[in-house]
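Review box. Two proteins, two foldings.
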Amino acid sequence: MIRMDKLDKVIEVDPSNCTITAQPGISLTSVHAHLSRYDLAMSNVGSISEQSLGGCVSSGTHGSGISFGSVASQVLDVDVILASGKKVRCKKGELKGENNERLFMATLCGLGTTGVVVRVTLKVEKAFRLREVRELISFEAFEGVTVAAKDVNGVANGNGIGNGVSHAHGEVKKGGLEEVMASAEHVRIWWYPQSNRVCLSRSNRTYDPLPLPLPPSSSFTWLHSLSPRTLSRVLETWFWDTFLGHSVLQFSYFVGRHFPEVNYYAGLFYSSEAFFRRSLGVGLKAILTIGIGSLWRWRWRPGKSVSSSRSSPFTHPRTNGITNGHTIKTDSDHHRDHIHPSPTHPTITLFDVSHKIFNVDCLFPQYTIEYSIPLSNATSCLRDVKKWLDEEHSKKGGLRPHFPIEVRCSEAEDIWLSPGFGRENCWIGIIVYKPYALPMEHAQLFAHFSFIMRSHGGRPHWAKTHDFSPVDLHQLYPMFGEFLNVVKEVDPEGMFRNEYVKRHLYGEGGEGEKDAVGLEVFRKDV
């Protein structure tokens, strides 16, 4: 393994052609900062930006958006130092009389097998903001229940949403998952199986200016100058996002290590309407109702939930508010901004620079597993996952997973080892948090989840847990054989074959070495 941390410089930013050229060790956080000086931005970003550019390009890091691919799909050309010591610049098509397209296609999502990438050029675009609308819907909305939706400003309308990417949201109808994924430029879903509710997040580009941000909540020198209303919001943000949304949540996961049923009741509260609305009165009522219910109900009966009369399980898993600069509007705020959400669905609107909306707070260390499946299979796949989890929750001693389950999408790509090769994709991922960095049992959960994903044509995320062999990869990737041929041409002695590559791409190593490799994603400091 080669650490590229010191190769972290920006080589060139070309505003006229909307490109940035940088070394591979630079973090996406630094890329965002450099691009902002030229009023530019990356077109799509994943959940975190602490990753290196080279790592993203080599492992298929992705965001969400049916008309957007992985970070690797944004690459125009790369410089690679081969095993022979020769430095080669490659891109799609011919370059100075040499056809390096094969090397280019093998290097992207190539796990570092072709050589050492030392320079990357990305296509970017004019800087934009994102207006994100989140709302509560039931899981059944993806199985045929009609759900009202909104345009980018949250205004209810009746426009259809099945015509590709659009700034207008209409209704979610039968077969609705594919339509939902096409209902905005960037759509992602957080599913809470404990409450059978879904947080639907839809974001569209806007070039409206940002409002002046409130001061960071970690500073107290400015408190005397704040109005009572603003001070109240600062304290509310700390209570909901820091105290309940982090400290109490982590403690509940810790208790859940020994009493797994706690995970179920925590899921009910953190996916409640009270937590979503940041309503203290409703929140206390929900806590009391769920707490009383837990005294007599120690097993989840599928299709039923403990809730107060006003509590609809719902939440948004990002730490929101003043602490990270988002402008937030809940239902009660919308009348001041001419936003009229559906009266039947709790709604929240976020507005910020693009990468701050793309990124989320990953909270704690975690085990994670994610698969890309054909978008056309997504609804049936999610039904199978739901059936499995319902069975687990109905059993005494059954699995009690953490929350949420994340669902995203991406466009078809032509990169040989991209999980999105040749098809529109639905990404489905689950997590097991490690409270206070303590180990957690996750093998059984991940094994059954993988079984379901495989049955629907799932391809694993290269940077997350999986146990795929060369036989599996040959079946899933039509260009896998050609990829191995290119690697053999440029690295005949296997200089760049690490243990991961040997195990999964070449089937080398003992039985113990074939176990899944779990990579951790750590909490992002905002």
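Next protein.
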Amino acid sequence: MSNEQLSVLEKKIERYGTILETTGDIIFDYHIDEDRMLFDEARLEKGQYVHYTLAVDRYTEALHLGNLVHPDDIEETIRLINGLTVQAIVIRVTRPDETDGRYHWTLVRAATVQNSEGRVTETVGIMRDIDDQKRREDRLVEESRCDQLTGLYDQKWTRIKIGEALEANNEMDKGILMLIDIDGFRAVNENLGHIFGDAVLVETAEKLTAHAAPGDVIGRIGGDEFLVYSPGVAENQIAGRVARIRRIFDHTFEGKSQAYRISCSLGVAACPKDGTTFETLFHCADQALSMAKMEGRDRWCRYDEKMSGMSYLNGHATNIDTAIFQKSGISAENRVLINIFEILADSKDFTSSMLLILGMIGRFIGVERVCIFEQEQEGKELVNQYSWYSGTAVRPKTERVGEEAHAYYKTFFDENGLYALGSVDNFPARERAFFRERGICSGLYKTLVENGRFLGCIGLSGSRNNRVWSESEKEFVSLVAKIISVNLYKAKLQTENAYESQVARAIVDSQSIKSHVIDPKTHELLFVSASLKAERPNARVGSL
């Protein structure tokens, strides 16, 4: 090399060195045969760059014994500096000028140097601190995995994170999976408003997070459904852990006319006793939750083999094992029917009770949507008056079935007013597209009739295609339809009678008629016209 060429090379090296100084990157030079690492970092001090160098002998040993590189990144680092892997990696390293031992995400680029024999003897490269950028990216990724309302993991990432936690466990590590559904949330949401309902969910999520133990994975997997995995919980600790969770959900909210209480039903499956994979544990917890719901809500159930076949979120009534009710002698279907009777008997709010009942039916049968279409007082159109949707269901854009469509669909019902739709693929293209847009692939529908009066229709529909509806499912839905028909008819009569009474009172009052109505048996005053009440202020309904 001539003196001129050497001078040009020296200037280039000086120029590249100046450029590297301004980047803040650390230059390294690893000598493979000597196992010796040299670091060179330029720092700007008082207007000029000062070079700090560090030499580490027996570098491979230092990697294993010290905390220079994160333990998970050591093997990849050794491969890089020995020229055995790609030319750029991202690892976590500590900084020699920091004493807290914090790892920084670092981009490492390397190139190999060969001797005259073509053997790699040296690796040189740069290390760039990308910690802020990497943590920013990780935060954005984490946010994309979370439910936007509560900040908890969404359904997909709850499953992934719990799966990862289970895989990281040893075979005999203990833990529990808790599937939680809020009782009474729909009444709060409908009566106090959706904004208030959202606030309840956010507050609940915050409390779950605040009470979480190290290693807990918490997710919101549906509208008012949560999933919690707690590692390290032994069998004798389950009741205490569940009790703390249930206290989070126990709250009463005051409305204008009444108070609304929420609680929770909870199903528990234990690892490794009930399973060691997410799928197995979730299936068991789902069945335990179903049992808790059927036993009356506001309680928890521990999974038992006798629950096999039950499902709260995805199960089907045809697989219910009747042995679970052996103690009480009541079948699963009858237990649900009894709960429906109890709800209707105890509730003073027909709308809230219907919403609760539809949800119970949908979860029991294993569908995503249950609706009651009620015939309007005048005309032949049907209006969706009451509906329940699971977290995966697609809410329809329309809530009304026109007269022409009603007449068309009526032809599908049999002589008992029942229509079992196994697959929408049997429909013409237009109707098939209509149903699929709403997430409906199959359904079971029953007319609502009482005292010869057509009231409407109850429909159970789901995303499961080619579903074969069993006779027991058809019988169950028919019994439910009968119960709903009776109560719907009664509610209609009460509404109509109240309206007629209001009209009659308005007519009497408008004519200034002084009239009253007395019960012939009790002699109680049942009605007092406005004109008579003005003349006799002490005349009140209910007085003798």
